[in-house]
Design a protein that fits this description.
Elements lengths: L2 E6 L3 H10 L7 E4 L38 H7 L3 H7 L6 H13 L4 E2 L4 E6 L5 E5 L3 E9 L3 E3 L3 H4 L6 E3 L3 H4 L7 E5 L3 H11 L9 E5 L20 H8 L3 H10 L2 H4 L3 H18 L4 E5 L2 E9 L2 E8 L4 E7 L1 E4 L3 E3 L14 E2 L2 E2 L16 E4 L4 H4 L9 H13 L28
Parallel strand pairs: 1-2, 1-6, 2-3, 6-19, 8-15, 9-10, 9-15, 10-11
Antiparallel strand pairs: 4-5, 5-6, 7-16, 12-13, 13-14, 17-18
Length: about 425
């Protein structure tokens, strides 16, 4: 007996795939996760934080709005639907979205928690053999959705300490900072949320100072405008995939704020809070906004830390003193040691395994044996790949490849911007 698909990791990507797979009784699957229960960036679920994507960009809706696993179904099943409508949130609270995904995982019997995958190989039958700490299973296909790992710069990695840590641990480690000097490094959304949380503390709980350091020229908003959001449609993902690597890299650099900027609401709250601290109440914490700076070194002092910062333009060096440092410096791909025996059989594009149009690794393995890579191909699929926006569509594409049956559901209307690489014929151009 073998599976249609064995999944490795149960984050949002494989959770989406497993939920959609439940609608295909002819397909079998098991999805393994080393954590004991589902969780999603628990250290970043701060009060008042919300999703940066629309409500319908959940696990399944944009692929199958009739699925039991939609966000609206979660609200209905838990008795929250009327209250959610009445609340009129500007953004879905991030904690509520995690609650939704926990609910979905609890309703899905394809998931196996507290079960780490140790190795993926090929059996004598030409099937994938997935070895966990508890069992061995064989499968026609494997779906890798292990997500990303916190990244700190090399200068910080050499100083493991409770008083300097990645922002993904913020909620657990940022309890008592009253009277302390805190530096937040990183100008994206997570850095902004950490900075806002710190400068919003009052009384004895307030730090004496909070500095916000960013390599960007300013604290810049995410571009959430309608035409930019067409980058997060399936047709643009396919268009991007069809381009050469040089174009892809340049496009991501030019449009990075479509995915990695700060929400305007967060920036406005920060500005208003600084206004109150400096111009109305005149009380701590003192704030320092420090864009155009790169942290180049870190050293201990007798009572804390000294960050060596290079200022642009001009390269002027300066020091920032801190008792606590929050590194909001992003994430990198999580390691995939379980694929070690197959690594030499993959084709590569830079540091990414090359994928085909259906997110399957390009390799020299047996025909019909596919390793799908979810949230692991930003170079090849663009800004949308690590984003929640196309998660359900990507899962549906994988299922269609596994089943060999194209989706019969109605497709989306064409994007308003014509993304195909070939120019539209004159007779087909709207005026």
């Amino acid at each position: 007996m073998y599976l249609s698909c064995a999944g490795i990791g149960v984050g949002p990507s494989n959770l989406s795939l497993s939920c959609l797979l439940r609608s295909y009784p002819q397909l079998t699957g098991m999805f393994f996760e080393r954590k004991k229960t589902f969780s999603w960036y628990e250290g970043m679920l701060l009060p008042g934080t919300g999703l940066q994507v629309a409500i319908f960009k959940d696990l399944v809706t944009l692929s199958d709005p009739r699925s039991f696993y939609t966000f609206v179904s979660y609200l209905h099943e838990t008795g929250k639907l009327y209250h959610f409508v009445n609340a009129r949130f500007d953004d879905v609270p991030r904690k509520e979205f995690e609650n939704y995904m926990k609910w979905a995982s609890s309703q899905n019997d394809l998931l196996y928690f507290d079960e780490e995958v140790l190795e993926v190989g090929l059996s004598s039958r030409g099937l994938f053999e997935v070895r966990t700490r508890k069992r061995r299973v064989q499968a026609e296909n494997v779906s890798v959705g292990v997500g990303i790992s916190p990244y700190v710069p090399p200068c910080a990695a050499g100083f493991p300490d409770a008083n300097q840590f990645h922002v993904s641990y913020f909620a657990q480690k940022m309890g008592n900072v009253g009277g302390k000097r805190v530096v937040v490094v990183g100008g994206g959304q997570s850095g902004a949320e950490a900075f806002l949380n710190l400068i919003s503390r009052e009384g004895e709980a307030a730090p004496v100072s909070v500095s916000w350091v960013s390599r960007r020229e300013n604290f810049l908003p995410m571009d959430d405008s309608p035409f930019t959001n067409e980058y997060f449609m399936p047709c643009h993902s396919d268009y991007f995939f069809s381009q050469d690597p040089e174009f892809r890299s340049s496009f991501v650099r030019r449009n990075i704020l479509a995915s990695d900027g700060v929400s305007e609401r967060t920036l406005r709250n920060i500005y208003q809070r600084i206004y109150s601290l400096r111009l109305i109440d005149e009380r701590r914490p003192a704030t320092l906004l420090a864009p155009n700076r790169s942290v180049e070194g870190l050293s201990r002092t007798h009572d804390g830390w000294s960050l060596e910062v290079q200022r642009f333009p001009g390269g002027l060096r300066e020091s920032l003193l801190a008792d606590t440092i929050v590194w909001a410096t992003g994430f990198r791909k999580a390691p995939t040691e379980f694929l070690a025996s197959l690594t030499d059989r993959f084709e590569w594009e830079g540091d990414e395994i090359r994928i085909d149009n259906d997110f399957a690794a390009v390799w020299d393995g047996p025909p019909g044996r596919r390793i799908f890579l979810l949230n692991a191909a930003r170079r090849q699929r663009g800004l949308s790949d690590p984003n929640l926006s196309l998660m359900a569509w990507r899962s549906q594409r994988v299922i269609e490849r596994i089943s060999g049956q194209p989706d019969s559901q109605p497709k989306a209307q064409p994007a308003f911007v014509p993304w195909p690489s070939a120019p539209a014929a004159p007779g087909n151009m709207a005026v």
